[in-house]
Design a protein that fits this description.
The structure holds 2 protein chains of 2 kinds. By secondary structure, chain A is mostly helical. Chain A has 12 helices and 2 strands. The two termini of chain A are 17 Å apart. The chains are: A mainly alpha, B alpha+beta.
Chain lengths: 262, 366
């Protein structure tokens, strides 16, 4: 554990340090000279602001969709299903995690192809959903859904049935119980799940390549700078953006007590 | 207190509930009067909690009806019934303060804010928790949580308060205190209390009337005194207080004829023979010193004793309780031969089986 932590922190530190270096434009070699050129570029070039906002937008959309989809599933598993069905559903939720990420992403690529199932369903309605950001959001929401269902399920399981009965007993209908009792108690679990869905989306660059058409997220920009552009310091500077966003997000979530849920 | 008013507060008619193939409640008929402190007493799994949950609306009966204040509410959901519940685990909302917990019932019924505040203040006052309104449930002790649950359930001024083993999680001393407090609160608010418990002493202490449950049925409904003095079955006699059950040879020896009889340990005298008493003799097998009293097990002079096949499974000894009063006779030891005496009216004849047969009780047996 300690070694993992040390290795991780050293790598992260190396990333930050690299971000303040630069490269020789002709030889593409690393020049270890302290400067802030990379960050100046980041803040002045519109394209990176657009990519950053787009990435945050996708991460937020994925998180919100996952929370909305996961809630009824987790509620059913925790409070309605029999023990047997609860186990079956738990396995069904966990099973996709055993399959390769790429297999699932390419499966969605097939789904969104112009002759795929999604579009043959949408065609009669005169709609078309090809590769692009919506497809990316749907694919990522699918990929990270178990990470939202599991903490919600655990959170709901910890709510005794008698608490829900007490609410009904005191005169609350289902909707009121949901709004005043279930959701407030569940909030920390939702935030805990959102840490996964949000951070995993921030760092993802594969799904968007497979189903995102020509769109780029931060991960792609980092990838391109580092490998295609051979500009490691700039890639490092770019990579600090999701790290900073995530730190801000974690600090915000911490205040809700969600970190105690993990 | 009993039958204070003619309109029954709760009426259960042929109520039954099965979970799959398991029958939890099997044909319960019960009428509870307004303002009554009514207990449902029975061992765990006897169906008493299920009956309570059907009154609250948490369970739908498979058969029969539930009426509250003369209205059939069988199909109504919990929020539409004028009944509130104190749960065994208190079921306080963990994310709300004590005051918010108590206020919840008023809030969901959209009572104006000013009135809410006054009533929450009063309710917390009633349960002596006025200074704890801002705390969270997990910051309170078990007894305090219990009082919050009580205040929360009473705030809507229900016609009936249901209590599901509310004192079960408290230690003995606190339990005693809460029993007295519960009784006082019930007298103060004057509404019907339906109290589920498996603790017979608690039921005897608190109740105006008690229903004894076993195997999903009610065996007897009576006042604590009637239950204790004239149980209608061996089960009731054994469940409410301790009792000497006499059958077979023991019955012939003590009562003088066949049948099933019950006599309470404290109704048997060891030395002094009151006027008109019946007597028999026996040998002390065991003495247990209880402080304020002594507990004796006396083997009866039954033909062949335990070796008689007729006596198999039937007791051939009597339990006797003698108070250690100032005038109590000399200490009696094991192996001593003693004369036992009792007044014939203290021997109760029971229906011969453990069935639900209605009372076949006679005061003048023997």
């Amino acid at each position: 554990m300690l070694w993992l932590g040390v290795a991780y922190l050293v790598a992260l530190g190396g990333l930050f340090v690299t971000a303040f270096w630069t490269t020789n434009e002709f030889s593409n070699t690393l020049v270890r000279v302290w400067n802030t050129d990379n960050f100046e570029q980041l803040f002045t070039l519109d394209v990176y602001r657009t990519i950053t906002l787009r990435t945050i937008g996708v991460a937020v959309a994925v998180t919100v969709i996952d929370a909305i989809v996961a809630f009824p599933i987790a509620l059913f598993m925790a409070k309605v299903a029999s023990q047997r069905w609860q186990r079956i559903m738990l396995i069904a939720v966990l099973m996709p995690l055993w399959a390769s990420y790429l297999v699932k992403a390419y499966a969605w690529r097939a789904m969104f192809s112009s002759t795929g199932p999604v579009n043959s369903l949408l065609d009669p309605l005169g709609l078309h959903l090809g590769y692009g950001l919506p497809a990316t959001v749907i694919t990522l929401a699918y990929l990270w859904l178990p990470y939202m269902i599991l903490p919600m399920f655990a959170g709901l399981e910890r709510v005794p049935d008698s608490v829900l009965e007490a609410s009904a007993d005191l005169g609350a209908r289902g909707g009121t119980t949901l709004r005043r009792v279930i959701l407030p108690i569940l909030a920390p679990a939702v935030f805990a799940g959102s840490i996964f869905t949000f951070s995993l989306t921030l760092g993802d660059y594969i799904a968007v390549k497979i189903v995102g058409g020509t769109n780029q997220l931060l991960g792609n920009a980092v990838y391109d700078s580092a490998l295609t552009g051979s500009n490691l310091p700039f890639a490092a500077a770019l990579a600090t953006i999701p790290v900073v966003i995530m730190l801000v997000y974690l600090a915000a979530v911490r205040r809700t007590g969600a970190l105690d849920e993990l | 207190m009993v039958n204070r008013s003619n309109s029954p507060s709760i009426q259960l008619t042929d109520l039954a509930k099965s979970f799959g193939s398991v029958s939890a409640v099997d044909g319960v008929d019960l009428t509870i009067a307004e303002g009554e402190f009514f207990s449902m007493l029975g061992p765990s799994g006897s169906g008493k909690t299920t009956v309570l949950r059907m009154i609250a609306g948490f369970e739908q009966p498979t058969r029969g009806t539930v009426s509250l204040a003369g209205q059939d509410v069988t199909g109504l959901p919990p929020f539409a019934r004028d009944v509130n519940t104190v749960f065994q685990d208190y079921a306080l909302f963990p994310h709300m303060s004590i005051a918010e917990n108590v206020e919840y019932g008023l809030r969901v019924k959209r009572v104006p804010k000013a009135e809410r505040r006054t009533r929450v203040g009063e309710a917390l006052e009633t349960v002596r928790l006025s200074s704890h309104g801002d705390r969270r449930p997990h910051q309170l002790s078990g007894g305090q949580r219990q009082r919050v649950a009580l205040a929360r359930a009473l705030i809507n001024r229900p016609t009936v308060l249901l209590l599901d083993e509310p004192l079960g999680a408290l230690d003995l001393k606190l339990r005693r205190e809460m029993q007295i407090e519960l009784k006082a609160i019930q007298r103060e608010v004057g509404i019907t209390f339906v109290f589920v418990t498996h603790d017979q002493e608690e039921a005897l202490t608190l109740s105006d009337r008690i229903a004894i449950f076993n195997d999903g049925r009610i065996l007897q409904v009576a006042t604590p005194r009637e239950l204790y003095e004239t149980p209608n079955s061996a089960f009731v006699a054994g469940f409410v207080g301790t009792s000497n059950l006499l059958t077979g040879a023991a019955a012939r020896s003590v009562v003088g004829r066949d049948g099933t009889f019950s006599i309470r340990p404290e109704k048997i005298h060891l030395d002094d023979v009151p006027d008109g008493a019946a007597t028999t003799a026996g040998v002390i097998r065991e003495v247990v010193y209880l402080g304020s009293a002594n507990h004796f097990v006396v083997d009866l002079d039954v033909p062949d004793g335990p070796d008689n096949p007729e006596n198999r499974g039937n007791p051939t000894s009597l339990t006797v309780l003698r108070q250690n009063t100032a005038t109590a006779g000399t200490a009696l030891g094991r192996g001593e031969r003693v004369r036992l005496s009792w007044l014939p009216e203290n021997v109760i004849e029971l229906a011969s089986t453990l069935s639900t047969a209605p009372s076949a009780i006679t005061e003048e047996s023997a």
